[in-house]
Each structure stands twice: as structure tokens, then as C-alpha cells.
Amino acid sequence: MTVKDLAVETAGWRPLDPRMALVNLRWLLPPLGIIALTAVASGGVNWEDHKLQIVSALLFVYLTAAEIVRWRTTRYRVGDEQIEIRSGLFWRRHVAIPRDRLRTVDLTSGPVHRVFGLAIVTMGTGQALRTDRRDQVKLDAVAVAEAERLREELLPRSRPAAPPQEAAASTVTPAEEIARLDPAWVRYAPLSPLVFVIGLAPLSQAYNLAERLGIPVDLGGAVLGAVAFLRSVPRWLLVVLAALVLVAGVVGTVLLFAEAWWRFRLERDQRTGTLRVGRGLLTTRSFTLEERRLRGAELIEPVMLRWGGGARLKAVASGLRQTLDGPRGGSGALLPPAPLRVAHATAASVLRERESPLLPARLRPHPRAALRRRLLRAALASGAAVAAAATLAALAGGSAGWAAAVTGLLAVPVSVLLAVDAYRSLGHALAGAYLVIRSGVLRRRTVALQRKGVIGWTVTRSPLQRRSGLATIAATTAAGTLGAYTMRDVGYGEGLAVADEAVPGLLAQFIESAEE
Amino acid sequence: MAQKAGGLRLRPPRNAVHPRAVRMWTVRAAVGYGLVALALAGLAAFVEGAGTLFAVLAFLTALAGACYAVVVPRWRYAVHRWEVTEDAVYTSSGWLWQQHRVAPMSRIQTVDTARGPFYQLFKLSAVTVTTASAMGPLRIDGLDEEFARELVDRLNRVTQATPGDAT
């Protein structure tokens, strides 16, 4: 460490919490558990059999040493203008985030972190930092109280986005609750493809365990044996087995839901102009978003959830790193899977609108040519499926004709239904201050994007789209992973008119009338 | 409204890139494919037993390269157009999948130029206009070097005069 480094340490630089090194204890659990299990199972420990576990214990020692070094070398400081983090022993890193670029401060605590009273603070900027090509910086880990204090210290400077008259009219309570968990929503948890998968997980777990315990398993033989077994047992037993897998799936999805959304609460802090989501059973998450970064909201309806009348809701915000929203919900999730009505009501209050701009009533359908495109794709897909089935059957010595007929009877109606549903999902509208776009079948997404959040347009037309007068028009924005929300197969002229109206004065200069 | 809207279309951006860009793209493609063809020809001469195979591959590469070098640069020149107005940057590219992109001046974050070796040889430049969107920057590829520098200066002056962080 140089003299200069020592000098700055005194001026407001703070260390991480030393207990962070203890979090590594979790790496010690699986090897110890396995050794204990075999000791119980076989009545003794033969160290020769535990080379793998000994290696992982050594790995634990190494990781702990590395963590102690990281604790010794990492310092952070919150200044008036920026937040700085120094870290690294040989490879010194110095990251500085301008405070006005800070968009989100998230606190996460895994089970082990919670045992030691620690939290990981993740600061998101949405922009690549100058010294580091990532868009977020982590403090892993500080004491929970320090994490809360940091969040309080970092975010209150923002200007409240509240319209002043509204704020003045009501007696301002610091934290206004927008939504909280209704335990009845757990009924939406099984409405996910996971429900079919989770029930099978014990099989793969059993295989892993058997392998670790050194019980030889011939996987190919096991699969063949399982198939033979399933063929030999009576039909009713198959039904019972399938039901058991499904029951296990339901239990699993419900547990995942509880882990992710226990004590869920969405609230607005009037004082600081922030939205805050707190949730989680074993791993608690707290996510804070400045309202002035909010650019809209997105309604996500995976197909099973949609059939069940439910939906998810996500924030669309600049600088918000959007992650894939699995069962645990990605960052930016504003609601667990919840009734559609609740999702709309929450969207309205989050966006400070009287009515949810995501309501489908206003959406305009896309031209019939968009339906023809989808039907054509459905025909091509089922044709390919039929051809593949016939070829496989012929190769396996079966009847190609039968295989083709069965596949066709199945694939044609399904793909046509999907095509029609995909077309019916398409829609766009200008609803007040928002551009609303909807598309998708298996995962229908409706986005309401603030018109002032649109930072450009990209118009793409394939040869087929040109022939049928369609276009794909993307509104580019600083929010979202893809950087754009897209109107697919919209009428060319109508799409341009909507884009022009959404952001007045931008596109008009490049538009001409085709009839001239 | 519907009838009027149905008749709207985007007009092409006003300017083509510099004609020298066609020559540069041609040379670049010829050199690239030529090197691969030469390497394959070398293999044909030195690898025992597979000589004919590599000779055929070398010939096919040279043929594909010749077609590419003749067709694609002219094609690209014809469809790649650009325009900078007082308040927006507008580009077009792509022949089959035609893409038009618009970025308002007030939302531009940075404007850069990039010049690879072939660009330097032909005194050309590629201008990159970045906004806060993750969709990627707008590119004007193949402007005269001097001209591009002036354009970038002008764009930077305008964008720096705009307050806020352009999100």
C-alpha cells in the first residue's frame, strides 16, 4: 500500500464489514454434509473416498483468505459529488460513480448473510462506468444497519417527481403503501411451466447424490429401465405417478413463490420521490427506484398465468438493469404474479395516473396482413414438424404415413391457434402521455412507455413486409435491456403516423406522402 | 385519418456517403478474401493428398470474393444514406432488411469517429452517434475524413449545449 492510499483512508473512507469472510462458511457445508452422510450410512469414514471433499475444504480456506484480503483492501467513501470504491491488492481498482448518475440502490441478503446480519448493496447507474465496463457496483458486504443508512444517504437528494399540487393537497405521509402481498395470490404460483419440471427434480437430485456417494449408476440403463418399468406397470399407476409429479410441482412452485415474495410490500416515499419494493423469505431483497427514472410500466402475461387471469408487473426505468424474470422475479418487478385487476391498479398508482394506461380497450389491432404472415409461419412450422416426424418414423422402420398424419393432426391446429392468438395480441395505442405496445403469445407483453422516454426510432422492413405494407417500428429508449420497445408488423403508414404523434416534431421532417 | 396515415412513408435521407467509400470497401473485401484464397492455395501446394480439395476451396473463395467485392460495396453505397438536420440524425441501411433510424439531437450522448487501416488509406471515416439506448449507435460509414471531423465537431457542440443526461 502506498503512502497516498493510507492518506486517503483517513478522509471518510470506510471498510466493509469483517463478518463478510464468514459468509464463505456455506462452501464448507456440502462437503461436511456428505462426509457426515456417508459416515452415518457406512458406519465410518474412509478418507480415501473423500478426496473431492478435502479439495473443496482446501478451496474454502483459499476463498476465506481471498475474502480477508478483499476486506483489507476494499474501502468506500460517499462524497458530495460521487461515491468511490477502491479495491484490489495487485490489481488496484478505483471506481467513482457520480451521485447524480446513481439510479438504483438495492439491498440483498442471502440466508447466510442474514445469519451474520449482513447485506449486499448494489448501486446501479445504467451506464458503463468510466473505469469499469459494468453498469453496477457492489459493496459485498456491509452490516444491515450500515446498508440501510447508505441507502438513506444516497437517494434522498433526488427531486421528488410528484406534481406539487397533489403533494400539497394530501397530508404527506413519508411512506405510502401502494401494494402488499395478498396470501391468496399464491394460487397463481403453479401457473408456470415450472410446475411440470419441479416434480422431476428429485430424480436428478437422487442421481447426483448417488454419484457423490459412489453408488455406480448407469444413466442410459436407468433411462431404459425406467421406460421398461413404465411400460410394464398398469395404466392407473402411471396416472398416479403423473399426479404425484404434478403435486410435487405445485408444492415446489408455491415454496418458490413464498421464498421470493414473502412479506412483499410496494411503497412510495413521498419525501425522496422513490419507489421501494421489499420482499423475500430466506433471501430478503429490497429494491429502490427513483421516480424520476421511471419511464413506464410493463405487464407480462405468460400463457398459463394469462389463462388463470393473472399477470406480472415490471417497472420500465432508465438505468434499471432488467434481468430475466424467473420464479423469483427479476429486478424491477413491482408485483408478484397477481390478479390482472390488481396489476392494472398498481400500474396506475405507480405511474400516478387515474387509470392504467396498459388497459387493452384502447389498443388498435394491426392489419390483416400481419395475421397472414403468422398463418404462413404456422404452415411452415407444421410442415417442418410433419416432415421431421415422417423421416424419423421411416428411419426407425415405422410407418411414415401414420407419423405424418398424427403429427399433422396435432401440429396444424396448435400452430394455427398460436398464430391467431399472436395476431390478436398485436396492438398499439397512444394513451395520454404513453405509447402502449402489446405483442407475444407464450409471454404476452404490454408496455406503456412514456412518450418523453422515447429517444429515437428504428424502422425495419423485410422484403415480405414491404410487399404487404407492414413495418416493424421500434421506439428506442434508455430503459430496458434491448433498448427499444417494438411494434411488430404494424401498418407502415399508420405506424409512422403513431410514431410522429408520439414524439411531435421528430419524424415529420422525414415523412412524405406516398400519393404525391 | 386511416386513409391519410396509410399513404405515409419515410423518404430516404438526403446524402450518400463519399464515393471513395465504394473503392475502399472493394479493396477491403478483395484483400480479405484474397488472403484467405492465398492461404488455401498455399495449403493446396503443400498438403499431400488433399491438394485438389484445397485448390477447389481456394478457387471457390476467390470466386465468392470477386462477386462480393463487385456487388456488395456498390449495393451498400446505394442503400446507405444519411442526413443531419437541426434537431435529428437520420440514417438508412440494408437492402433486403431496410432499416431507417432516427435519433433526436437532444438525446445524443456521444459522437465518435472510428478509422481502421483501410479507412486511413482512403482518407475516410466512420461516424458513430450514441444515445442512451441499449439498441446500439447510429453509424454513418464512409465519410470523407475532413468532412467527418467537421460533422463530429458540429454534433458535439449541439449535444453539449443540451442540458440533462439524455435519457
From TrEMBL, chain A:
The keyword Transmembrane appears for this protein: yes
Q: Where in this chain does the record put each YdbS-like PH domain?
A: 71-153, 423-489
Record keywords: Membrane, Transmembrane, Transmembrane helix
Top-level taxon of the source organism: Bacteria
Q: Give the InterPro entries listed for this entry.
A: UCP026631 (IPR014529), YdbS-like_PH (IPR005182)
- Positions of transmembrane segments: 27-46, 52-69, 236-258, 375-396, 402-420
- This chain belongs to the protein called Putative membrane protein
Automatic annotation (TrEMBL), chain B:
Q: Which UniProt keywords apply?
A: Membrane, Transmembrane, Transmembrane helix
Its recorded name reads YdbS-like PH domain-containing protein
Give TM regions: 21-47, 53-72
Species name: Nonomuraea pusilla
The YdbS-like PH domain covers 78-154
What is the top-level taxon of the source organism? Bacteria
Answer whether the UniProt record assigns the keyword Transmembrane to this protein: yes
InterPro entries, per the entry: YdbS-like_PH
